[in-house]
Amino acid sequence: MKILHIGKYGEISQIIGDEAHKRGHIYTNISQLDISIQYTDRLTINGKNIDFLDYDIYLLRGIKRNIAEIIAVYLNFHKKIVIDSDLTFKKILDFKNIYPPEENISIPFPPFILFPTNKDIENFEYPAILKDTYGKKGKNVYFVKSAKEVKNIIEKQSDILFMLQKYIESIKEIRIIFIGDKIIPIGIEKINDEKVIKNIYQGAKGSPYKLSKREFQIAKQCKELSKLDIGGIDLIISKDNEYFVLEINRAPVFLEFNIATGIKVEKEILDFMEEKYNYK
Fold this sequence. Notes:
Helix content: 25-40%
CATH topology of the largest domain: D-amino Acid Aminotransferase, Chain A, domain 1
CATH superfamily of the largest domain: ATP-grasp fold, B domain
Order of helices and strands: EHEEEEHEHEHEEHEEEEEHEEHH
């Protein structure tokens, strides 16, 4: 099987590539900057030093949404298999999750406002969480205590599309990963007593955590409604023992997950890709 991974070079791509090579697959990783998208009388996409259409399956991971969608349309037109065709760093926070199509499916998000106005900011309950809707690795996420603090941050970073989210005091924060139809039954509990924002890239560590029946069901609902092939769910349990989904991440980083659980997520990804390719 010939795999083209379009996304950032790094430790994650190296791990996936190593697993692919172990299985005898041809694996190539190119970055977004190696892609040339052109239109004259028709759309054409080329990759640096490769035949772009000479692959069996394509993994789009952590590239900008608009570019991912163009690539997906092009590959679908040429009847190619694409994993997460609109994969981006953007968190899933759209109306299909807030107003699910089935009455028996509901995802408990904390109340939030996308792109808050001055009036929204003034009327919001504090403390709160202000974060970049397109953020990654815990960047541009702030614990804010007043409307003035929110306005100062937004004014200084006017190019960022922020969301304002109710702060939920939690006793646990759990990262869950799903791949295809499989929800991994072991998650990791994020541990960092010194910070409100518990992100692996900001020093938080993870310990293995076996999902309860309720947690597994919430993860299943997130997977079904997000329509993703690969996703990471950040789930918290409040001090009142209520569950809230903070986000569903389209490009979950899984290095700490592997270390804490002993599960090799890259193997699960390759299993899924092999199944999808053989199915076709």
